[in-house]
Amino acid sequence: MYINGIGRTKFGALTKTLPELTYEAMLNAVEDSPLDITDIDAIFVSNFLGGPLNGQLHFNSIIASLLPSLNIPIIRIETACASSSVALNQAINCLEKTPNIMIVGVEKMTGTHLISPTDAIAMAGDYKNDYEQGLIFPAAYALIAQQYMSTYGISHDALEQVSYINHKNANLNPLAHFYHKDVTVEMIKQSPRVASPLNLFDCSPLSDGAAAIIISSKKQSDRDVKILSSRIATDTISLTQRESLTSFNATKIASRKVYQDTGVTPDMIDILEVHDCFTISELLALEDLGFCRPGEAPELIENGSILPGGEHPVNTDGGLKADGHPIGATGLAQIYEIVTQLRGEAGKRQVSDPKLGLTQNIGGIGGTCGITLMEGI
Amino acid sequence: MKYCCLQCHKCWNHPVEKCIFCGQGVTPVEETQYRVIGTSEVFVPSTGNEKVPYFVNILEDLHGHKKIEKSFQKYEIGDIIDIQQNDVQRDQIGVIGTGLLGSQIAAYLIQYGYPTVLKTRSDDSAKKAVSKIQKQIAKRMSDAETEAVLQSLTITTDYSGLADCDVIIEAAAEDMDIKREIFHSISQVCKPSTILATNSSSLSIDDLAGATDRPEKCIGMHFFNPVHRMDLVEVVIGSMTSDATKDSIIGIVTALNKKPIIVQNSPGYVVNRLLLPQINEAVLLLEEGVASKEDIDSAIKLGLNHPMGPFQLADFIGLDICLSILEVLYQEFNNPKYKPAQLLSDLIEQGKLGFKSGEGFYTYGKVNR
Fold first, then answer.
1. Among A38, A75, A88, B262, which one is most buried in terms of CB atoms within 10 A?
2. What does the mean pLDDT of chain B come to?
């Protein structure tokens, strides 16, 4: 299976509406692909908060309205922040019957008035057990960060570095939410407290945006990127049912399956995109994916391994922190970046000759994880 | 409005840029004449449609393009409706001043498609203003869109650059002498039909109008900070302001997706006449030791459901600005109830101007500018 077309919009607080963003990403993917829109057999759409934030459900039919008289099967997938990697995974399962599939992810989070984004995003957690006690999303990650910092004796400086590196990477990505923002370590340190020990700069922003890719069972051109494996795994959502509060089991399980499927080991992977919805989750990802042992991620960051010129460049697009986190589009934006890098089309932020790239996309506080491994051809 | 690909004969209800089927550009199509092909009278209220009964009509134009239109008037099937076309020709608008509000108003206007001329003092301040405007727009649009939108912005350092504007919004410092001078200068260079609006937050429209050759075309147009988030514009009517001037400005405010309210010229208009006495009273409460500033802020936030308390808001506005508006109210009404609290002047004297100086009633630490 191959990815033959990719497209996305700018991420940020945008004026475009939910359907307009979706259309722009789909159009860009079709223009990038050798296939025409009429070659597409089915569409998977990934969107998290269209109902509560935009008053828009039955979103597959909105996609149909954007493609008049195509009348193909379209289906929406929702697994919180992991929606788009799961949509891709499900699309892959359908390739036998529908050989050319578009996957489009979108979120419109700013300029909405129905309910507050904090309340809406909290719907990814256990409403009855946790949210009613005030466990909003940043608070859940704050508890994880506190556990991690005390278990491994790590200061907040390590998290500040994650934020800083992602912002520097975003300064090379014209489509990133914070492309224009000059961020200093001082600004990160001074930023207001959100939920201790996390500050504003530990958190990804509310972004609008969309991303789309087209996959096919057959190779279409030399710009194609091969999908070696896509795996998803789940876990209990409430922290109260977890054994470990310093790692995400769903990431471990899904990534082990990908490694088993392909014989690839982490040291062979040239570039990766991880789900840094909060800075702490980037540390967890590096460990859960097997790039280092538990508690060692801060060293990996300190020794420059994850920088664009390092051994395993991470989040060259700026990550969720600085490229932005339009939730339903995030997993596909990660794929967009890996495909761009594997094709050697990343311009100023191109890393040196990558062959294998991996994405890790999680939902809620690790309740779902989608891992995708790709190879340039 | 439909957006149609003339090649593929497909149409969209959303403003798409290109046809996804053939890659060609699309053409906006809008007819003014529609035939009613279906209608239903609705008796159940819903959010945004509380007033019942109303009618929902399905309309069709010459090309067979359909649209849904709500009405309170009953139509019969087969009736022909003429839908007024919105003004395609956008007015050209001038903005004077590149301070906090001036640059925000200019940025907002060009995002809504108004060709805008921004008057700055020097080439240097022009550069700063353009970069500020670009940053504001880039937050909400892609680089390509930002660049396209910026095409509608023209900069001039001379009043003569505003000569052809249909409306000029003056957003200079809140000082009657400065504003009168500006109004006098622009009324000498502008075409006779130009409307002269001021973004003043408290000053008299009539005093400003007196400095011009066209008092009937002088009006207040008071935006609120931050412009892209605050939905209100106070439209302030002077004793000589004509109905035509008023209607033009209401039209523009509505097209900008903001809510105009009509205010007869009076010191502080409505918002500041209500707000500043409240802030002043809060400062008096603090002076008298009735409650702490934190508790007074809590009282207003939790007891009256305001998003910010008076001390937070005063700091955000700037204590110097608060004092100057209070002084206008005090002098104009000559009523001791508006006498500015002593503590306000004391803080200003100590250089504590609020958020912008890092400290006012509260301390903010270093402010990134």
1. A88
2. 92
